[in-house]
Amino acid sequence: MSDIERTEFKLPESAPARGPESSVEPHAQRGEHDVEKSLRPKSIHEFIGQPKVRRQLDLVLSGARQRSVTPDHILLSGPPGLGKTTMAMIVAQELGTSLRMTSGPALERAGDLAAMLSNIMEGDVLFIDEIHRIARPAEEMLYMAMEDFRIDVIVGKGPGATSIPLDIPPFTLVGATTRAGMLTGPLRDRFGFTAQMEFYDVEDLTQVVTRAAGILGVDIDSDAAVEIASRSRGTPRIANRLLRRVRDYADVHSDGRVTVRAAQGALEVFDVDELGLDRLDRAVLDALIRGHGGGPVGVSTLAIAVGEEPSTVEEVCEPYLVRAGLVSRTGRGRVATSAAWRHLGLEPPEGAIGS
């Protein structure tokens, strides 16, 4: 029996915003949780940011609807937290079909994929998160399913094994990946539309925070929304998370209204500085600058200095530090830029990168 998770996606109903006299009964707490789940946009026009992706995807879906055909398979790539899963949900919503969700690591055998594909209805959207981690046997079965809407099921073992062809209804595969370079060429080429999700600017993130505050019933000042957005590392998921923590701070330490002062106080409590760096980010910079004179330093050495795994430093901290212009990757190792020295309140040495 396959242990793959199969989910038919249904959008949550919008719940009313909390008023100032909201009940604190258990059923009220469950309602608030439902409201937080509704932070995901429900349509492509409600989705904030990613204007190129939205325009291109809207064209793909609109053309398919006009021709009454199943849209091409869609690949969404980009860093975590930018809305790839939300976009897959929107695709199903726009097409008026069911969404079935799984992940690449869950598809360990070809039989796992066959079990899922055998239950697909015509026009359904199959969403595979982290598709670059799908097992090779399942990936090879996916080739035929994507191109010919057919799979071969092997019955038996050894010389007596028999291949039984199984036709499946036309469907749309939406794959999401944080590492597009790890996709094999044959799999990548079978997607009819590929979208690269990009980090958000502060203006778009401010809209994300303002919209989420309205859904959560949070009274927020416009400049407080900008403050939260500017510390969210260009990622909507982080912006929504910081908003909820700032809301907690405002509820406990003031009248619940989120002002700039409340936002700054909350983010200081949760170790998020003005650039969006957290404790681990600053620990890496401190080890790089104060511990090794600004580098160059290997990632393994930095990981030992901060007490983390090298993969954590390389995959969690380093991408944002590089994008923020605080760390430079060289052939000899990681080097702190002049901006990193100044961020720690130190004067950069002569010859520092960016000085």
UniProtKB/TrEMBL annotation:
Residues 201-271 are annotated as: Small ATPAse domain (RuvB-S). It catalyses: ATP + H2O = ADP + phosphate + H(+). GO terms for cellular component: cytoplasm; Holliday junction resolvase complex. Residues 274-355 are annotated as: Head domain (RuvB-H). Keywords: ATP-binding, Cytoplasm, DNA damage, DNA recombination, DNA repair, DNA-binding, Helicase, Hydrolase, Nucleotide-binding. It is found in: Cytoplasm. Mg(2+) binds at T85. DNA binds at R329, R334. Homohexamer. Forms an RuvA(8)-RuvB(12)-Holliday junction (HJ) complex. HJ DNA is sandwiched between 2 RuvA tetramers; dsDNA enters through RuvA and exits via RuvB. An RuvB hexamer assembles on each DNA strand where it exits the tetramer. Each RuvB hexamer is contacted by two RuvA subunits (via domain III) on 2 adjacent RuvB subunits; this complex drives branch migration. In the full resolvosome a probable DNA-RuvA(4)-RuvB(12)-RuvC(2) complex forms which resolves the HJ. The RuvA-RuvB-RuvC complex processes Holliday junction (HJ) DNA during genetic recombination and DNA repair, while the RuvA-RuvB complex plays an important role in the rescue of blocked DNA replication forks via replication fork reversal (RFR). RuvA specifically binds to HJ cruciform DNA, conferring on it an open structure. The RuvB hexamer acts as an ATP-dependent pump, pulling dsDNA into and through the RuvAB complex. RuvB forms 2 homohexamers on either side of HJ DNA bound by 1 or 2 RuvA tetramers; 4 subunits per hexamer contact DNA at a time. Belongs to the RuvB family. This is Holliday junction branch migration complex subunit RuvB. The gene is ruvB.
